């Protein structure tokens, strides 16, 4: 199946979770937020939230500085 991950089209296995996408992009363990189709997914739901075919995932990391 296809999904957009941080603006890039990716082939993902059917049933891929948000947690798996976070790992796929190499995001750090802390300071990360995820949105699926424009809605924030709470960290507690990452493992059981499945990315649908055509879904749009944004993995955002906190950046310090000014």
Automatic annotation (TrEMBL):
One Pfam family of this chain: ThiS
Q: Which SUPFAM superfamilies match?
A: MoaD/ThiS
| Annotated signal sequence range | none
Source domain of life:
Bacteria
In terms of Gene3D superfamilies, this protein maps to: 3.10.20.30
Q: What name does UniProt use for this protein?
A: Sulfur carrier protein ThiS
Identify the coding gene. thiS
